[in-house]
Amino acid sequence: MHHFFVSPDQIDERYVTITGGDVNHIKNVLRMKIDEELLISNGQDKDYYCKIESISDNEIKALILDEEFEGTELPTELYLFQGLPKSDKMELIIQKAVELGVKEIIPVATKRCVVKLDDKKEASKIKRWQAISESAAKQSRRTIIPEISSVMSFREAINRAKEFELGIIPYENFKDMTETKEVLNKVQKGIKIGIFIGPEGGFEESEIQYALENGIHPISLGKRILRTETAGLAILSVLMFQLED
After folding, report:
1. DSSP secondary structure string, 165-183?
2. What is the DSSP string of 191-236?
3. Residue 147: what are its φ and ψ, rounded to 5°?
4. Same domain as 151, residue 63
5. Helix crossing, 89-99 with 228-243: angle to 10°?
6. Lowest mean pLDDT among 22-31, 63-72, 192-201
7. Shortest CA distance to 186 belongs to which of 72, 76, 42?
């Protein structure tokens, strides 16, 4: 079943009104017809099972058949603070992190980041990354579209994560799996968790020290060194498994 997102003001008691680019996609790309069913999310907390009742050039009216409140979201909010990687690795990271249930992805400019984004490039990149997030949210039947935030400095990212109940930072020089398991046992429903992943080359020691001084917990991802595009997905997979009912 095809999946689309609308804002709450496009939903009334009986109908969902689809406008914008999705009209062309439904009408001319998918070539959907009257009475075909589709899934529509309000981007917050609810899914609607609908069928198309009318199609025009500017909007599509979908009759609500059923509503679902439970959705597919994890019971804990996961925030991925991702050190800016090279080439198009960020696109893969965003796609897979959204599939795994992340709430928000925050690109972080760390000391070892090779990529430097000026304001114009950043705006273009974030627009592209947000479109990837939306596509992945539709594919994985998310109730929300995870936000891709503006690029933060490492200190800004740490200061934001200090507001969360738990912050973790996988670090290749941290080998204590017993302590890692103790940290992961703190994961519970209803909290916010910040996850810090370094770019190619990892974090500098001073960054790790700053994170620890501000209550972020170091963890190990095992004996192997993981690439930046693998590390975040590894820990997100572990957390998803722990949190799913």
Report:
1. SEEEEE-TT---HHHHHHH
2. -EEEEEE--TT---HHHHHHHHHTTPEEE---SSPPPHHHHHHHHH
3. -85, 140
4. no
5. 0
6. 63-72
7. 76
Q: Is the pLDDT of residue 198 over 70?
A: yes
Between CA 79 and CA 161 the distance in angstroms is 9
- 192 and 235 part of one domain: yes
Pairwise CA distance, residues 122 & 132, whole Å: 15
**CATH number for 64:** 2.40.240.20
**Same domain, yes or no: 165 and 95:** yes
For the whole prediction, is pTM greater than 0.70?
Answer: yes
Q: What is the C-alpha separation between 120 and 122, in angstroms, rounded?
A: 5
Q: Comparing C-alpha atoms, which of 48, 22, 19, 220 is closest to residue 141?
A: 48
84 and 181 assigned to the same domain: yes
Domain assignment of residue 199, given as a range: 77-243
Based on the structure, what is the number of domains in the chain?
2
Q: Rounded distance, CA 192 to CA 103, Å?
A: 9
pLDDT band of residue 149 (cuts 50, 70, 90) is very high
Q: What pLDDT is attached to residue 70? A: 64
Residue 238: how many CB atoms within 10 A of its CB?
Answer: 16
Q: How far is it, in rounded angstroms, from Cα 177 to Cα 179?
A: 5
